[in-house]
Prior knowledge:
The chain has helices spanning 13-23, 48-59, 63-66, 102-105, 115-127, 137-142, 146-153, 155-168, 188-205, 207-215, 268-284, 290-307, 320-339, 344-355; strands at 2-6, 33-37, 77-85, 89-98, 130-136, 174-181, 219-225, 234-240, 252-258, 357-358. By secondary structure, the protein is α/β, with parallel strands linked by helices.
Amino acid sequence: MKITMLGYSGSGKTTLMHGMASTLAPGNADHDYALIPRRKNDDELASFNEEVDVLVDFLENAVEHAGSWPLGTNKTTIYPFAIEYLTNHKITNIEWIDFRGGLLTHIFKPAHRDEKELEALFFHLIESNAVVIVADSYHLSHFTRMDEIRHFSGAKTINMIMNRFDRVYPNRELNVLIVLTKADSVDASWKEENYQLLLDKGMEVFDPVVKLCRKNNNWNGGILPISVIGEQNVERKIMPKAELNSPMDIPFLAEDKIIGLPQPFNTEYVLYFCLGFSLLQMKNVTKESIADYQKTIEKALQDAGTLNSIWSFVRGKPSAAEIARRSSERKKKDEESLLQFESHIETLLDYTRKRVRLFV
Ligand SMILES: Nc1nc2c(ncn2[C@@H]2O[C@H](COP(=O)(O)OP(=O)(O)OP(=O)(O)O)[C@@H](O)[C@H]2O)c(=O)[nH]1
Ligand SMILES: [Mg+2]
């Protein structure tokens, strides 16, 4: 399975992923599901020492463990995990894609963007079971004009990408979760009644994505507030920027000083949503034969190249046909292994409904 996170630089993607994984760390007695960092590309069991090393590498970046925020991501990173249920019942492997947020800021500026990175983004989106859209709650509550909120939170760019993606690859199955990070940082009125105001605003800001989820029968969508630090564990300072290079730049700096033991809030629901709905789709969606799937992907890749130069894909890479073949092999393997876990669907969706507001 593959999950891709999309969000502006500083929106909190890397922190969210570490928060979720440390909440669901193997051996955490509070949860039935566990998310276990793997060595890259391994299917076989690692030795005890290797397992420990992987965890050491991973935890180095987790707020709860290190007591500091993770470093900014300057290179898109693929984190391989395994998902287990009640220890030792492995459900599936999962690849979690953490895009360098900087990529999005420049995606529609040809002089600044990296074409290879863009190709990688499209490729990962094509293969993803779920897209996790990440936006900073504070930005949603701080600005008043809708165009400002969309501009500074990255929603404007993300709405365009998702729209583009839907047109390049119509009729596909997808799950989209909008995650509003740093929910601790908004005023109390935004938090009342399970963050009602914040979620309303999030749906307005990402209205084009919400509409796509509702329009496409094969898409599931939802929105969730999260915080990796929890309430009262952080001291936030907002400082106006001394010099603004451009009115397009965010006009303030935020500094979050960690002052208490982090208590991640809602992070595990990101996994429950993604896994629950992916399993449901594998079970319900009228099964395209693998050959048809391969053809569809190949066509999407080819069309992408002709529809718009930003999606040009193939240069210096395997052919569209080859990529489609590999991708369908992976999909087949996923479906085989995931369908053994059909019985988890209801549990995962029950968990999901507790905290995620679904777009139905
Ligand atoms: N108050 C609060 N601040 C947070 C939380 N999560 C992240 N932050 C702050 O946001 C900063 C950026 O978070 P990152 O996870 O590095 O953001 P990113 O989206 O990965 O950014 P790039 O790697 O540049 O794409 C952190 O260094 C913290 O200062 C949270 O739950 N609460
Ligand atoms: Mg990052």
